Amino acid sequence: MKLFRKLYDWVLHWADTPYGPLVLFLLALAESSFFPIPPDPLLIALCLGAITKSWRFAFYTSIASVIGGMIGYLIGYEIWPHVDSFFFKYIPFFTEKTFINVLEHYQKSGFWYVFLAGFTPIPYKVFTIASGVFKLNFLLFLIASTISRSLRFFAVAALFRKFGPEIKTLIDKYFNLLAILFFILLLGGFLIIKIIM
Q: Are 178 and 115 in contact (CB under 8 A)?
């Protein structure tokens, strides 16, 4: 919990610097393809620090996240053909049969997988990379990513624009409980991935 709090505080400290919007953009971009820390805490802090710029911060975050998602897609699309034999040979549950099974699911419901991951605590980066691996139609991927990521970040901005500092006080007061809830949701996301795949 202390480590999570330190990471949270580290992310938040950028809100007090002139580099806050740039770091928010880079964080959102990285989180969509490989980085573990979501941009939401920094987005929240920036919205609280400049309520009138909330929509602008949400826009930056959405654009960066979609670009990061495209990078994740590219990682899956380009790198998978070079490493698939390793997975099939050395990862016990990852057989070619399993791969084909997941591919069939992805071809049917890939849009909704990306949409759900983009809007919820389910790890979005897993699905951006998977979309490239399974060669999900890129236009569908882009539409699902743009809608879900925008809904998520503009919803955060709207919430803090509406309630402002009251919510920050609530977060500080119940941080440990909220952190536990976050990890439960994250774990639930991984369980959903396991069920789907």
A: no
